[in-house]
Specification:
By secondary structure, this protein is mainly α. Helices cover 73% and strands 0% of the residues. Among the domains are: 7-132, Alpha Horseshoe (Serine Threonine Protein Phosphatase 5, Tetratricopeptide repeat), CATH 1.25.40; 268-347, Serine Threonine Protein Phosphatase 5, Tetratricopeptide repeat (Alpha Horseshoe), CATH 1.25.40.10. It is rod-shaped, with a radius of gyration of 30 Å.
Length: 347
């Protein structure tokens, strides 16, 4: 089973999409802002009011954003850091939750991440998220960044940030986090499963879905893949009826679902229905036997309608249920398919 391809650059691009929200009339990168910055510095020194500080911090921030857009990362970081320091040096007169402070810190953290300084970026984001827990895009960027820093602890913490954002965030970052958490939880589970850790795979994916909710992937194809994976993990862990529920849910939406390898859901579902029928039959009693008949019938409808093993199981189930006539008719059907099978049954 393949992992979903989740491009880090794409995640970061989404995280950046709402960065440039502040503006300052008449300012462009082509027209140097330096004269205005020097004038703002002078005004702040002469008269350290909140408005003068905000003006200088905003100008420094915008200068950093322009360098960021131009791809000059070091100058971008320097100017964005200067803007943050200017605003933070207000001795509390500028709130940590002000738009200017939030945007400056977010811009700095993003520039650090883009400049391959994710650990430094995380420190800035943690400070921002701590003071502004409802600031969705910073929490989203924090989750993405953590998940891309090497180390299981970082990955798990990043997923935790995404799951929490998906649970209590605000649009559109709530939906973005739901998709990211679903896909990354799936990817982690696939790795666990490939390494033979079936319970770990099941725990990772089920806990993610329990927190985020079902069908929160980017599209129906992803949701089907997640449901299929859950079925596989449950089947491998011995929970046939749990697997059956997952497979049937996917089959109901898309009865032609198959992996890139060509493995079709219909075959796996049919086999699971057959195995569940055997398990049901092993419980003994008329009620269990009739339940087994239903499962064998489902296996025949989903897979090969002439599958001799499923027909044999159905005949046995009818016999246990005391319906001899139905058992005989099923055996007749079986013999028509394979005349030698009756001899196998007697033996």
């Amino acid at each position: 089973m393949k992992t979903m391809k989740y491009c880090t650059a794409l995640l970061l691009a989404v995280a950046l999409s709402a960065l440039f929200v502040m503006s300052y009339a008449g300012m462009t990168f082509a027209q140097s802002r330096m004269a205005d910055i020097e004038d703002a510095k002078r005004l702040l020194e002469e008269n350290p009011t909140v408005n003068n500080r905000l003006r200088l911090g905003t100008l420094q921030y915008l200068e950093g954003v322009d360098y960021l857009q131009a791809g000059d990362m070091q100058n971008a970081i320097d100017w964005l850091q200067a803007g943050v320091w200017t605003l933070e040096d207000s001795q509390g007169t500028i709130s940590d939750t002000s738009t200017e402070m939030e945007e400056a810190r977010y811009g700095l953290s993003y520039a650090l991440v883009l400049n391959k300084q994710p650990v430094d970026g995380v420190l800035v984001m943690e400070n921002l998220v701590s003071s502004s827990p409802n600031y969705g895009k910073a929490r989203y960027l924090l989750g993405v960044t953590l998940m891309n820093i090497p180390g299981k602890e970082n990955s798990e913490r990043g997923l935790e940030v995404m799951v929490q954002l998906a649970s209590d965030g605000n649009p559109p970052y709530m939906e973005m986090a739901e998709q990211a958490a679903t896909r990354i939880g799936y990817n982690y589970s696939v790795v666990d499963h490939a390494q033979g850790n079936v319970q770990g795979a099941l725990s990772t994916l089920s806990s993610t879905l329990d927190s985020v909710g079902r069908n929160k992937g980017a599209d129906q194809a992803e949701n089907e893949l997640v449901g299929f994976a859950m079925g596989v993990y449950q089947a491998d862990s011995g929970d046939l009826f749990g697997a059956l529920s997952e497979f049937e849910a996917v089959y109901e939406v898309n009865d032609t679902f198959q992996l890139e390898s060509g493995a079709a859901l219909s075959g796996l579902l049919s086999n699971t229905q057959y195995q569940a029928g055997l398990e049901q039959l092993s419980l003994g009693g008329e009620t269990a036997a009739l339940g087994a008949v239903d499962l064998f019938d489902s296996a025949l409808r989903t897979g090969d309608s002439q599958a001799t093993d499923a027909l044999h199981g159905k005949a046995v189930a009818y016999t246990v249920a005391g319906d001899t006539a139905a058992a005989v008719e099923t055996l007749k059907e079986l013999v028509k398919i394979d005349a030698s099978y009756y001899a196998k049954i007697k033996k």
